Amino acid sequence: MESEPAQSANRAVTLRDVAKLAGVSIATASKALNNQPQVRAETRARVIRAAEQLSFSPNTLAQGLITQRSGTVGLLTSDLEGRFSIPILMGAEDAFGSDQTSVFLCDARGDAVREKHHLRALLSRRVDGLIVVGARPDARASLGRDLPVPVIYAYSPSADPDDLSLVTDNVGGGRLAVDHLIRHGRRRIAHITGDETYGAAQDRARGALERLGEEGLALAGEQVWFGSWSEAWGRGATRMVLQRTPDVDAIFAGSDEIARGVLDTLHQENLDVPGKVAVIGFDNWNILAANARPPLSTVDMNLEQLGRLAAQRLFAAIDGTLEGGVETVGCRLVIRESS
Amino acid sequence: MESEPAQSANRAVTLRDVAKLAGVSIATASKALNNQPQVRAETRARVIRAAEQLSFSPNTLAQGLITQRSGTVGLLTSDLEGRFSIPILMGAEDAFGSDQTSVFLCDARGDAVREKHHLRALLSRRVDGLIVVGARPDARASLGRDLPVPVIYAYSPSADPDDLSLVTDNVGGGRLAVDHLIRHGRRRIAHITGDETYGAAQDRARGALERLGEEGLALAGEQVWFGSWSEAWGRGATRMVLQRTPDVDAIFAGSDEIARGVLDTLHQENLDVPGKVAVIGFDNWNILAANARPPLSTVDMNLEQLGRLAAQRLFAAIDGTLEGGVETVGCRLVIRESS
DNA sequence: TTGTATGCGTTATCAA
DNA sequence: TTGATAACGCATACAA
């Protein structure tokens, strides 16, 4: 009848219970479980067995109180759809190692007061650090310099240059896209992109232009088509491009959404992709890119890597001190069938 | 020179500091800050002022140690893209009230051992409860009955009927879609959907069939087109539907992805939407539905509401006790221009 | 090698 | 109305 351990009602089993079961003091139990050297092998084994029997799991809150470290970080986002935050979170999660550090995900929904609330709550929970992911890849307000924990801005840089920001190399991404097109023999390349008030749109265009310039080439139609980040704009702009420069042989779209619009119009005009016109997008948003007809080549921002980097920098900053500045993460090409 | 408070270096300001600054004992400071009645108004004001000056924020870990409640919950997901988890998280977040309860988001990436790890970590952090979001809307393995905290399964029900599961009313969603089509005079309705091994696909189809039956109608072509959850399948299946039943006047797609494929083929065949054929999707995945040509009518699963409900049930279960079973959350129609 | 005592930051129970 | 003091669960310096 002793064969049914307290397994099923394992609420609140503490080190005290383990110690009692093992017949040692709390201190000894603690040392045994934490691999401290000053404990006899046989004793340690006994303690460990007891802990397992009770399926003991140490109370991290109590540990945190002592070590002054909660083993948690906050991920403060404003990115509604989680489209950028999620890959960043996943990268961070695996850099931290899931059982070392856990992350609180808070969505401020673009609301400054909600952000303040979340910030207070996180600080109150004694997070060891913060990762801030903005809604768009442009500078956002700093959380301030007087926070008790290190803060890393990811995706959207902080407006304060003394903060550490990790951002996508959009210029490089633009180069990458155009370089790929050029290598495949395209010469009449157009660029349709989103809102011109976005730094990312400017940067991607700049990268494209630079690479084109190196080849002695200019943009087909000699302009960048700024508009909005939507399929509808991609459709409309493509129509204009075709009218203005019917000999266009490639279109670099500033986002996968736009690229979908581009494809749509190209199909309507019976222009073969990539036979007649190659198309390349930006973001590698799988649901859009992989399912396109044909599957869309695109530029991936390596957001997971960005998340990993954020975790590493944060980790380093937690004991050391944080150096401000802007670090850049390179993009990579994902070639499918549209180019 | 006293005008510069310790604001900038506010690391580790404790109740002790506040008490000292206010000239009272720690106990009194605590009572004052927690609105306990037995404290003089003037004293309370003094304490509060001191707390503000030091921008004191109580250490939640310490509070949790005493109250036996961490004020945190874990959201354990397997939903890679966060497509379902995020709305659920947002709903839960706002039901909890951001400064009362914070949520740990953990992605198990469909890996059972990773899930175990996360679970251990979460338990060790003494979360007050768990919300589990599966990867697909079918039953998933239970976490077990012997956990020290209440668990709610959202989106994917638990295989154990004694657990509490909150799921989408897929049958109702199917009815809703077809009902809408019928009300707008459609009679020759086809249904193209995803993998037939998905309960959700079966349920949506069943709802559609039921509603059709009530009207004395049958499915155009007298079959449900099961396949995969992709645009490509939507395209291919539409082609078959058109061949088999050229007089089809509406297509109910089992997901927005499929619906996008349907639209694509319809355009290729020069069939006007919704003039000739109406189309309705499922999921209300904004990026796909809102940007479609024409914008796609679709069924929304009210995932945020599901998240809110999960939070409420969890909250209730934290002090009370949890009743098992399956609760269902209704869908709603989002009418755009494709129907 | 083991155990006792102290403290982490709070709250709660008493006396004063 | 206020202030010692004892928890909460754990880790550690120190004593045995």
Question: Which keywords apply here?
Answer:
Peripla_BP_I (chains A, B), 434 Repressor (Amino-terminal Domain), homodimer, LacI/GalR-like_sensor (chains A, B), alpha/beta, six-stranded parallel β-sheet, Rossmann fold, transcription regulation (chains A, B), 12 helices, DNA-binding, disordered N terminus, 339 residues, six-stranded mixed β-sheet, elongated, transcription cis-regulatory region binding (chains A, B), DNA-binding transcription factor activity (chains A, B)
- Beta content of chain A comes to 15-25%
CATH superfamily of the largest domain in chain A: Response regulator
Total helical elements of chain A: 12
Query: What best-fitting shape of chain A do the alpha-carbon axes yield?
Result: elongated
Rg from alpha-carbon coordinates of chain A: 27 Å
Widest beta sheet: strand line-up of chain A: 2-1-3-4-5-11
Mean pLDDT of chain A: 93
Name given to the CATH architecture of the largest domain in chain A: 3-Layer(aba) Sandwich
What is the H-and-E element order of chain A?
HHHHEHEHEEEHEHEHEHEHEHEE
Oligomer: homodimer
CATH level-1 class of the largest domain in chain A: Alpha Beta
* Percentage of residues in helical conformation of chain A: 40-55%
Please provide the count of β strands of chain A.
12
* CATH topology assignment of the largest domain in chain A: Rossmann fold
Query: Largest contact between protein chains?
Result: A-B, 64 and 63 residues
By helix and strand content of chain A, what is the structural category? alpha/beta
Low-confidence stretches of chain A: 1-10
Q: Tell me about the biggest sheet of chain A?
A: 6 strands, parallel
